[in-house]
Amino acid sequence: MSDLVTLAARIDEIWESGAAADARAVVSEALALLDAGAIRVAEKVDGAWHVNEWVKKAVLLHFRYSDNREMTAGPIEWFDKVALKTGWREAGVRSVPTAIARYGSFIEPGAVLMPSYVNIGARVGTGTMIDTWSTVGSCAQVGKNCHISGGVGIGGVLEPLQASPVIIEDNVFLGARGEVAEGVLIEEGAVLAMGCFVAGSTKIYSVPEGRELPPGRIPARSVCVPGSLLSKDGSHSTYAIIIKKLRDERTDARTALNSLLREGGV
Ligand SMILES: CC(C)(COP(=O)(O)OP(=O)(O)OC[C@H]1O[C@@H](n2cnc3c(N)ncnc32)[C@H](O)[C@@H]1OP(=O)(O)O)[C@@H](O)C(=O)NCCC(=O)NCCS
Fold first, then answer.
1. Which of 5, 136, 171, 198 is buried most, with the most CB atoms less than 10 Å from its CB?
2. Nearest CA residue ID for atom 21, ligand 1
3. Stretch 99-126: mean pLDDT
4. Same structural domain, 99 and 204
5. Ligand 1 pocket test: which of 180, 194, 228, 262 has the largest number of ligand atoms within 8 Å of its C-beta?
6. pLDDT at 112
7. Active-site residue, 12 included
């Protein structure tokens, strides 16, 4: 196996110049490392999130160099370029029937996948539950001990290349049917009530701070609810995320999951 710096350089080169004789093999090597959790699309380095663009390029190149092939499950069949992840028992992940994770995603041991969908390049931390009908988009990073409630959408970001993935840090609770997209960062321990929609331009107002915050980041331990903000000229109001308070014991009690339901596959 080539070292990671060389591998990154080869991926960049294939991305820039197109075909190389061993392009398929190089891209496969990167995807295998991603699938095994040895490399990731984004990681925290010295306290700041760093996006490994070469890994995203590898994911996109995987589509160029892969052919569609039939996949079946009993009478059910698909036709696609990206295989499905298998080997849940060995991976230590509890995967409930009809949960689907694509090859090139990585689910840490101890996570639980209810009937949900995890796309290529995404990563899900240990102790996290991806609840029913929720989707973790391509390259999204979900931390440890999170609850991604039923029907939540976490946006994917394969295109454009420079787009940052959505990052959900450890111990976050995303209430049912909400959506987080466009590279938004949800910091450690934040709680989003059901139905919160957060895109890159969504207005965020903090009641404890008494001011509007810059878009794109929900600060750690914020308890957020859907609301609206009046425009500057007072002519209309716009959907906004309202941070009501910092997480307290009452919030913890309401967002706690039964530990029996959370037990992963290890
Ligand atoms: C966010 C949540 C956990 C409440 O947290 P909490 O700490 O108990 O919040 P509180 O009840 O103390 O409310 C704090 C403030 O937020 C408001 N608020 C709370 N939940 C709200 C909601 N869902 N929508 C709008 N406002 C809400 C309260 O009215 C209160 O406002 P006030 O300070 O002006 O009186 C809860 O509303 C929620 O969304 N739970 C998740 C449900 C869910 O998705 N379950 C998973 C199913 S798979």
1. 136
2. 225
3. 97
4. yes
5. 194
6. 96
7. no
SS3 71: strand
Q: Which of 35, 108, 169, 179 is catalytic?
A: 179
At 55, the pLDDT band (50, 70, 90 cuts) reads very high
Pocket lined around ligand 1, Cβ cut-off 6 Å: 131, 149-150, 175-176, 191, 193-194, 223, 225-226, 244-245, 250-251, 254-255
In whole angstroms, what separates CA 26 from the centre of its chain?
A: 25
* Residue 199 counted as domain residue: yes
Contact 43, 143 (CB under 8 A): no
Total structural domains in the chain?
A: 2
* Domain membership of residue 150 as a residue range: 79-247
Which tokens sit at 263?
A: 């037990």
Q: What is the pLDDT of residue 259?
A: 65
Residue pair 102/62 in contact (Cβ under 8 Å)? The answer is no
Residue with tokens 């859907």: 226
